[in-house]
Amino acid sequence: MGNKAGQRHVVFEPLQGGAGGHQPRPELDALVLDVLDRVADKWTMCVLEVLHQHGVQRFTRVGELVRTISQRMLTKTLRQLEADGLVLRTVHPEVPPRVEYQLTEMGASLCAAFCSLWVWAERHEPELRQHKLARAGATVERG
After folding, report:
1. What is the pLDDT at residue 10?
2. What distance in Å separates the CA atoms of residue 15 and residue 21, rounded to the nearest whole number?
3. Handedness of CA 5, 32, 77, 91 (dihedral sign)
4. Strands, sheet with 57-58, edge to edge from the N-terminal-most edge strand
5. Which of 15, 32, 65, 123 is within CB 3.0–4.6 Å of 50 for a Cys-Cys bond?
6. Could you tell me what percentage of the chain is helix, strand and coil, using 3-state DSSP and rounding each to the nearest 5?
7. Which run of H or E residues covers position 56?
8. pLDDT per residue over 64-98, tens digit each?
């Protein structure tokens, strides 16, 4: 996806010795940032979570489980996930055609990696809520 208009450019500088004691690798850093750029949006995370929790699903069911996503955005999101190798799209030769979506092994392992974000958020929920309220109050005061 690359750097979108209006986004700031982020320079990733890992801690001394790299993550987990590994040596820093600029090409790997760029790859990680590209993955984050591709999946760290609301709809992509929701679709990944639905497929992770519910397994193989038809297009309409994915949309129902995500709830507020438009058909156009769901189509775009599933196509991007398929192009990135995170979702497998299977078209069954029936009339009408039956199309199903499921996570690939790489998609499932990405969901497992992002699961730690939910664990972290749950552990720090009171502090996160407190800071969110403080930001909202600061915005109202400045406004």
Report:
1. 53
2. 9
3. positive
4. 57-58, 98-103, 87-92
5. 65
6. 60, 10, 30
7. none
8. 999 999 999 999 999 999 999 999 999 999 999 89
pLDDT in tens, 89-124: 999 999 998 999 999 999 999 998 888 888 898 999
Q: Two tokens at 24?
A: 């820093």
* Torsion sign across C-alpha atoms 54, 59, 60, 65: positive
| Cβ–Cβ < 8 Å for 63, 69 | yes
Can you name the CATH fold of 41-142?
Arc Repressor Mutant, subunit A (1.10.10)
- The owner of tokens 């790489």 is 106
Regarding pTM above 0.85, the answer is no
Taking only Cα atoms into account, the Rg of the chain, rounded to an integer number of angstroms, comes to 19
- CB contact at 8 A, 88 and 102: yes
Report the distance separating Cα 74 and Cα 71, nearest Å: 5
